[in-house]
Design goal:
The protein is mainly alpha-helical and about 375 residues long. The protein contains 16 helices and two strands. It is found in: Membrane.
Length: about 375
């Protein structure tokens, strides 16, 4: 029985967190017109049937406080969110309607959940000391374990989002740690976390590649925009000659692209892949340019639309370039501050997890 309780507590804690990452579930509940309050009472009822009403209320309360921490942080950052939706035997979630602007903001947003979650179960301490009711020990253990597991330095867990501002390379250690945990204690949730964490680690490795792609996209858009602006100043005869030149250039690049099309190994053949991407973008943009200036003329509405689209893409490219360049950038003071805050909260939660488990072990017969 003791082993069983440890297993379901660990399993439940992971499931509760993962619920906050499943935005598609929020869409389903919106479609069904479930309000926050209705979903809360449904969750309490569902948990009460299985575990009893006291446990149900305590669990939903812990979920609520954790999510309210994220909501409070999002409001402070000016990030709009959905209302909290509670999903029986899955947890609760609040979806962000905008992404954080930096890893520092993301860390602040993520840290608030476990911090508020810790403050949320602290009232169980004096209640246990005064009543010696083992239920409050269970509340301490459950609240501490849920938030401690969230602090594992693996994306998309809160801990992974926090350590991103320190160094996103820490995710690789989190990935190794989760793999070791799975080998030691196999379960259905760890493989999902390992998969999501591996995807994020891969994205980190490809960050420079994505930055170079955004640079290429921006350069080609700017080149085509400048060519079109010069074209508009030419006479009709000059436009026709330029148009023929563009047709020849497009045909040449299409031929070269067909010749170069093949599979390239990521990382090892990135330069060849970037060259292909440049060719693909040139073919696409010059095809659009020829369509906008068909027969060497000037289709006013088409040209204006094309110019607007190019300017918009250039702006988006610039934003992507800046985000890739500075998102995880932080000064030494910021990194050390978040490292200390992260370790301090993890130590506090580890102590309370052990303390709560000690209470449960001492009262095993009563809890069983």
């Amino acid at each position: 029985m003791k082993r069983f309780k440890k297993v379901w507590l660990a399993f439940l804690s992971v499931v509760l967190f993962l619920s906050g990452k499943l935005k598609w579930m929020l869409a389903i509940f919106k479609f069904l017109k479930f309000s926050s309050l209705i979903s809360l009472f449904i969750s309490i009822g569902a948990y009460a049937i299985v575990y009893g009403w006291k446990f149900a209320v305590a669990l939903v309360y812990l979920l609520y406080v954790h999510e309210m921490g994220h909501l409070f942080a999002a409001k402070r950052l000016g990030i709009p969110t959905s209302k909290a939706i509670f999903i029986p035997f899955v947890g609760a979630l609040i979806a962000l309607k905008e992404e954080p602007k930096s890893a520092k903001d993301e860390a602040y947003l993520a840290y608030a959940g476990p911090l508020w979650g810790t403050l949320g179960f602290l009232p169980a301490l004096p209640l246990y000391w005064m009543t010696e009711d083992p239920f409050w020990g269970l509340a301490i253990a459950l609240g501490a374990l849920i938030n401690l597991f969230n602090l594992m330095p693996l994306h998309p867990l809160d801990g992974g989002r926090i350590v991103g501002v320190i160094s996103p390379k820490i995710w690789f250690f989190g990935l190794i740690g989760m793999t070791v945990y799975f080998l030691w204690n196999p379960g259905p949730i760890a493989p999902l976390l390992i998969l999501l964490g591996a995807v994020k680690c891969w994205e980190l490795l490809r960050r420079e590649f994505r930055w170079k792609k955004a640079q290429i996209h921006k350069e080609i858009n700017e080149t085509v925009l400048q060519a079109l602006q010069r074209y508009m100043l030419l006479s009709e005869e000059e436009r026709q000659e330029v148009h023929w030149h563009w047709e020849d250039e497009l045909e040449r690049r299409e031929t070269e692209l067909q010749r170069r099309k093949t599979w390239y190994l990521p990382i090892f053949q990135d330069e060849q892949k970037l060259q292909n991407y440049r060719l693909e973008q040139c073919v696409e943009k010059y095809s659009q340019l020829l369509e906008a200036t068909r027969w060497g003329g000037l289709q006013e509405q088409t040209v204006l639309h094309f110019i607007h689209a190019l300017q918009k893409e250039i702006e988006e490219n610039e934003q992507e370039i800046q985000k890739q360049a500075v998102y995880y950038r932080a000064d030494a003071k910021t990194k050390w501050t978040w490292l200390c805050l992260y370790i301090a909260l993890a130590v506090v939660l580890a102590v309370f997890t052990a303390y709560g488990q000690q209470i449960m072990d001492a009262n095993q017969s009563l809890i069983s």
